Amino acid sequence: MQSIKRTTIKDVAKMANVSPSTVSRVISNSPRISEETAKRVKYCMNELGYYPNAIARSLANKTSNTIGLIMPVRPGETLLNPFFQEALRGIVRGATVCSYDVLLATFQGGEDEIDSMRKLISASKIDGVILMTSRVNDNAIKYLREINFPFCVIGSPLDDKQIFNHVDNDNITASYELTKHLIDEGKKKIAIIAGDKNLIATVHRIKGYEKALIETQCKLDENLIYTGDFDEKTGYTYAKYLFENKINPDAILATDDLVAFGVVRYLLEKDIKIPDEVAVASFNNSILSRQFQIPITSVDIHADTLGEEAVKILIEYMQEGKVKRKIVPHTIHIRRSSSSKSSRF
Amino acid sequence: MQSIKRTTIKDVAKMANVSPSTVSRVISNSPRISEETAKRVKYCMNELGYYPNAIARSLANKTSNTIGLIMPVRPGETLLNPFFQEALRGIVRGATVCSYDVLLATFQGGEDEIDSMRKLISASKIDGVILMTSRVNDNAIKYLREINFPFCVIGSPLDDKQIFNHVDNDNITASYELTKHLIDEGKKKIAIIAGDKNLIATVHRIKGYEKALIETQCKLDENLIYTGDFDEKTGYTYAKYLFENKINPDAILATDDLVAFGVVRYLLEKDIKIPDEVAVASFNNSILSRQFQIPITSVDIHADTLGEEAVKILIEYMQEGKVKRKIVPHTIHIRRSSSSKSSRF
DNA sequence: CTGAAAGCGCTTACAG
DNA sequence: CTGAAAGCGCTTACAG
């Protein structure tokens, strides 16, 4: 297709009457170039519309200036959940600021996440990887550590024994505060319906919930804790279970808005008053939580900031080799689902 | 960081007792290699864990096997709207099937979409581009045609005089059918509140609406047609306008679910019965349209399929140079917002 | 069917 | 401060 002759470093060199090496040094802002030469070379580059070939550059200095991201295949993880989209925005924005590009891949057939990473890494297409979640026994993390390839995860290690770059919310505290809020609203029997129990985020959110209950001397009841998936069905199913089995909580904490919708749908069907009879609170502050018939109290985890910070940490690591972690503050939005006093909503 | 010595084509050649050229030919499945040699070389590649360096390959054959995608910056275009996310999934899936990767970039500061494309193209990082929308006077399309760079747009040209690769729904027909449905429900005065009027999709959806009205001899009233943005505010504002100015339509067609939510919010506030007093229908079949207090009739445009087909068309074009267009069928979901007879919802 | 050689467009020690 | 040369890891006409 493209048969347009590219202008190369040689053309610039010829025009500026210097060697290609010099042009290369001008491009990379080498300090050992006279200002005069630099100016002349830059002028010629402009004149010729020269733009360095990133591929050639990558080959020569063994770095692609590209970050890899494996897109999850399970629709539940991306299609429905705005988290991925917002985090992605943050990642791309952060990368752009640092002059990196983002390569998006997915897997198919018999492959898994690790296969797709291996491919990109072996092919030298990427310099580092962003992992969008952290699981209890995370094979992707294990793999990347084994081959000692730069990465940063959005999420946390299970415990502090594992050390790697990561950025996360303080999910324990967020969940703790949310539970406290429900207690402050006079709720005595608070259930939690959480997402995938293999996600560290789930583990942490349950932990925060338990912490608040223990602290305020409420009972910690096994019958009030459930895990499932990040979807509406999980919420509906366990809400139904709770009431059909006469466990009858007066508040339900969901770890994702989608789960909360399922909960609310059940409550509405049964004409259970929200928040008076049962309060609901949740995570992610998606547009649904704001627009829903009954606006839902929800924690904004600032997914875009998580994404942006993850890239920054990764790039810094690639340049300086220092492992970092960063906690992004959350914001709790109190709405009608948990507080009859709630003003605007 | 990475000081692991890569195994290269030379290592394989040495082990297999052939020249690097031969190994290269085995990699690219050249037919002029004896089966025996091929087998031996493949064995050695496996043994050494060899994986071709994509960057070196790109440099040598001037093709990156990567497709570029410019992520819109305006939050309204991506953050809130699931269209982008679903289309992206389709794009990445389609690319993976064809062994392509997807490079995601955005712009910042004084740049625009075209600057970021220019960068990626000049740097030889991508072989083709997917455009996620088409506008009335689309500079991105103009630019790509000028430099004769392969691209495919999700959307349509304004008229058939412009020829380029694209995939789209038949928005005129979809809108026509939706309007007909409202007429069939007994509605006589149907308003349309559309998104950005510079988008071809908006133009087409208004056209389909008008076509249905003209055909059924309803009046075509300028006071019933509004354009704004793809957001809730637009819906709320114009719904309010329609009723405060006593235009009082008995149905409102929105061109996006977010717009529809704004409309519904206004109607609920004013205690206007849906669908009896005012019916509402919309586009995109987002999860909100299904989960909302009042489930909203909406057209599923199958954004993921649009994305997947766009990549396929683009890749075919890059290989064979044939310009193509494809129409992805839509699905209309009738729900309570427009039909009291609607069963499940 | 296979190999030697040149080349893709850069970078970077080395030498001056 | 600048240049000549080698090299990054492939591909591909050309020759045999």
Q: Quick one: how many beta strands of chain A?
A: 12
Q: Give the percentage of residues in beta strands of chain A.
A: 5-15%
Helix content of chain A: 40-55%
CATH superfamily of the largest domain in chain A: Response regulator
Coarse morphology of chain A = elongated
> Could you say how many structural domains of chain A there are in total?
3
Q: Give the number of helices of chain A.
A: 14
This entry's quaternary arrangement is homodimer
Question: Alpha-carbon distance between the termini of chain A?
Answer: 57 Å
InterPro entries (chains A, B): HTH_LacI, Lambda_DNA-bd_dom_sf, Peripla_BP/Lac1_sug-bd_dom, Peripla_BP_I
GO molecular function, one term (chains A, B): DNA-binding transcription factor activity
Domain HTH lacI-type (chains A, B): 7-61
Protein name (chains A, B): LacI family transcriptional regulator
